[in-house]
Amino acid sequence: MAGNIPRHETRYGGAPLKAGRAILITGTDTGAGKTYVSCLLGRAMREKGFSVRPLKPVESGCRPGADGAPFPEDASFLREAFAPELPLSAVCLYPLAAPLSPHLAAGAAGVAIDADRIRSAIAGAAEASDLVLVEGAGGITVDICAGYSFADLAKDARLPVLVVAQNRLGALNHLCLTLHFLRSGAIPVAGVVLNDTSPDPFPARDGNEGEVRRIAGGRYLGRVPHGARSLPEGILAGLLGFFPWR
Q1: For residue 36, is it within any domain?
Q2: Catalytic-role residue among 18, 34, 48, 56
Q3: Can you give the residue range of the structural domain that contains 194?
């Protein structure tokens, strides 16, 4: 069972994976399917024998839970998918009620988000696992706290970024802007995944994949069909191929 394999003995492709790594998973926009893809990715890694941990530092738009406090549903999905042994508070540091950008939702709740706390949580989770999947909120430029975005977090915590592109009309423009922003900021792109968030056909649905492949170049990892129960073949190998081996 994956949970019984010591992280320092984890191997992929015959070589040990260097421990203590983390990536940031961002979207081309809100609703791109970051949580869905993260769940599939984390589950696939665990099935391969990796010790993998989720971290959703800030989640806004949380409905009240049984105790009346904001319940971070996305963080709960991540935990149940591949880290059920973790307390939910270790997955989501700041669950917030207002359906707003994290810094605005925090302000509405009178909560002060501490970026140092988030960076420390990433470092601690990385020390305890082979890979940490840090899920952002919305796109890469969204502020966590005033004047401090997920892009800033990626730079400070040295997180390569996995971009989930929602397969819809307008996806190509959003992807170009996201990749241009990352590259201009010297933030490494670990990969791009195209995600079918709807089964409904539209003229650009299948043609988008070729264009996403062209735009992303060698960092295009693959496409997740709507309703997929497992990560499509090749995406995990492509992501892990980004990392140097010990």
Answers
A1: yes
A2: 56
A3: 14-240
CB 104 within 8 A of CB 96: no
If you average pLDDT over residues 128-150, what whole number do you get?
96
CA atoms within 13 A on the CB side of 30: 9
- Asked if residue 146 is part of any domain, the answer here is yes
Predicted structure pTM score: 0.91
The total number of structural domains in the chain stands at 1
Whether 48 sits among the annotated catalytic residues: the reply is no
Q: Could you tell me the CATH number of the domain that includes residue 119?
A: 3.40.50.300
The tens digit of pLDDT for each residue in 62-119 reads 999 999 999 999 999 999 999 999 999 999 999 999 999 999 999 999 999 999 999 9
The one-letter amino acid code at 2 reads A
How far is residue 83's CA from residue 77's CA, in Å, rounded to a whole number? 10
The CA distance from 187 to 163, in Å, is 12
